[in-house]
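2 proteins. here.
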Amino acid sequence: MTTTAPALREQMSDRELVARIVEGDDALFEIVMRRNNQRIYRAVRAVLGDDNEVEDVMQQAYLNAYRNLRSFEGRAQLSTWLTRIAVNEALARRGKRHIGNEDESMIHLLESPGPDPEQETFASELRDAMQREVAALPQPFRTVLMLRDVEGLSTSETAAVLDISEDLVKTRLSRARTLLRNNLYRHAGVTMQSLFAFGNARCDRVVAGVMARLR
């Protein structure tokens, strides 16, 4: 599949990876997926509102991206381009199933960190409160929040992914933060980045599914 040494493959830039994949080195697409799986998962999860179809949507989004790699011109970061494809696929899937309830429960969060039982209890309760607040957000607010506060995309990157104006990104993010009650961000034991983790087993499943279909 490829003659590039593993260490060198990991050091390749996104632009180099795309060029090699377009030339026929399909095995390198695994690196692209593993570099972006966490972000893609969180973005798709935010749009769908539940965990049932996330992996299917991720795989389809990656296949869509693979088929259109020749159209990637490098004007935006590869991660932004991939996220936009994934969001569009998630929105299409969401539209097909005609969701009527925006407030479906979110995914189970990570177990509480730290050995202190009292701290674990507090962190667990706080995570539960955060989960309920995130689940209660309307999908447009939830998606912006995930991209900006969880994934750390800039306003311009989020606008590009969602194909909306930067002003609208700012408005939705401000509204989402207000609804979440900003004091939740400051409590000890929980950070936004610790939420909605994409575990190794799930990562391996998505990569294996896409690579099998490419072969």
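next one coming up
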Amino acid sequence: MPRTIWKKWLDRNPDTRVLSLETGYSRDYRPGRPYASYFKSPDLMFPALVNDDRLAAKDYVFALRLENEEKAWSLGLFEHQPVLNDTIGVRDIVLIGDPETRTVRAYSSNGLVFTPDGNSPAMLRSGNDTWQITEDALVGPDDRRLDRLPGHIAYWFACQNYLLDAETRVN
């Protein structure tokens, strides 16, 4: 979807209506407010099956599904090591995570082993080579690219219910 500025949008779409935070109700709809107490609580909002108790129901995991392979990684794995080399099925991957910001990126690694660069959080090292972390790929020497893989952050209770056969790394 193309991006535009509000004035251009409104010039082309003068009948556009925008939702207001003034709803007539006392609920606070500012960003992060409607479910803040739920996010802070270990309790679930509704009954859910939690068959695997290696993690607490609302611990965060990064889930990845590629072809017929599924895998999840606890965000706790990234507390002391922001870069994790691993596999999903037979594919070598590298994950870069930060549990404080609840972010993880996964990239194909084609057998390369990566470590943090130490000089820049936007760079990785593989042997003597430096690789730049971008939104779409790791970019290395001679503009060699290793594609980003589509994953997402989820609560453990949800992940272990929709990725029923997924391998999971919790420690």
